[in-house]
Design brief:
The chain is mostly helical. It is built from 5 helices and 3 strands, in the order αβαααβαβ. The protein has one domain: 3-Layer(aba) Sandwich (Rossmann fold). The protein has a 3-stranded mixed β-sheet with strand order 1-2-3.
């Protein structure tokens, strides 16, 4: 984990655009999606043994996720958290975020709003130790 910020800085120095998106979902919504995968034959292929384990280990995974954020979130390569409880909104707002973050030909002539919804896409903020 100590090397991640150094590696990210190096690849950005080489001209690579790095955008770190984390798609966040509530435990309840994740469980709902897993149940749908179990009952819907068109989605059953998405189900894996890891899915149930993820529910069982939610608190432990959350702890390590927060550790990862805390150790690898930097000013030059911040974590961007995307509320993914609504898949379509999450995808559209992620696209807006990426398009607004990079320069490309024709950007100034875009006919769509490139400003992402801050209720769905936001920069990670470190918590104080009292909040853990």
């Amino acid at each position: 984990m100590k090397q991640v910020p150094e590696i990210e800085h190096s690849i950005m120095d080489d001209g690579i655009i790095l955008i770190k998106l984390w798609y966040s979902i509530t435990k309840e919504n994740q469980q709902k999606r897993f149940k749908e995968r179990m009952t819907n034959p068109l989605k059953h292929w998405k189900l894996s043994p890891v899915d149930q384990k993820a529910q069982e280990m939610w608190d432990k995974v959350t702890y390590y996720k927060e550790e990862m954020f805390s150790r690898s979130h930097t000013g030059y390569a911040p974590w961007i958290i995307v509320d993914s409880n609504d898949k379509k909104k999450a995808r559209l707002e992620s696209i807006r975020y990426v398009l607004s973050s990079i320069d490309y030909e024709g950007k100034e002539d875009a006919k769509i709003n490139l400003h992402h919804d801050p209720e769905i896409v936001e920069r990670y903020h470190r918590r104080s130790h009292d909040e853990h």
